[in-house]
Design goal:
- The chain is mainly α.
- The protein has seven helices and no strands.
- Helix 2 packs parallel to helix 4 and helix 2 packs parallel to helix 6.
- The longest helix has 32 residues.
- The two termini are 19 Å apart.
């Protein structure tokens, strides 16, 4: 009977701790920011082929996609190494600046070479931003609640994945790709401001014994 009582008590403590975190400023801000990050990122990727094709035809379009893919892989490998030496928070800010700069340059490129170079710049942020969400949450929260927290945060970020391509397409139809990619840049900047306002817990939240 005492074992059953202890298990119920631990379960109750777990639920209290989980609900406290879900309602915290940090968790809400990071989750909201990642909805915007994924909207800008996936929207930018989804429309990159058409944007580059309009600038320089099929060769430039395929070259831009290949450049982004290779840069994403390379950036993630480099980022994984850097994170063993630098904190996650400033690295996240740095990658958001790269994302919004790459998106802006893609939108306002007038020659094909600039479009490909902009795709490389944008690509360096793609893999890193994807891996930083789970890594940052794992750094802050204990293992007993981390799986549920990441699952919830990641589920919300899927809203951005679905909405981003539609948003850029809607702007393009009513204006042009320069304005569409400018919107994506502003969305990225908004995400950066939200994450900055979130701050960071001074220490890792300790789980109940």
């Amino acid at each position: 009977a005492s074992d059953v009582y202890k298990r119920q008590e631990l379960k109750q403590d777990f639920e209290i701790e989980y609900l406290q975190v879900v309602k915290s400023r940090f968790f809400i801000c990071v989750t909201a920011a990642y909805v915007l990050i994924m909207a800008a990122q996936v929207g930018g990727i989804a429309h990159l082929y058409n944007r580059a094709n309009a600038l320089g035809g099929l060769d430039v379009a395929t070259g831009s996609i290949q450049a982004l893919t290779l840069a994403s892989i390379s950036g993630r490998l480099l980022g994984g190494w850097l994170l063993t030496r630098i904190p996650i928070r400033p690295f996240l800010f740095f990658n958001l600046l790269i994302q919004l700069s790459g998106l802006f340059l893609i939108g306002f490129s007038e020659i094909s070479e600039v479009a490909i170079l902009s795709s490389i710049l944008f690509g360096f942020s793609v893999g890193n931003l994807l891996m930083l969400q789970p890594l940052w949450l794992a750094e802050i929260y204990p293992s007993n609640i981390y799986p549920r927290l990441f699952a919830l945060s990641n589920a919300y970020s899927v809203i951005g994945v679905a909405f981003g391509p539609y948003l850029l397409g809607l702007v393009y139809v009513n204006s042009d790709y320069s304005v569409a990619y400018l919107v994506a840049s502003v969305v990225s900047l908004t995400a950066l401001v939200i994450i900055y306002s979130a701050g960071q817990p001074a220490r890792k939240v300790e789980s109940k014994p």
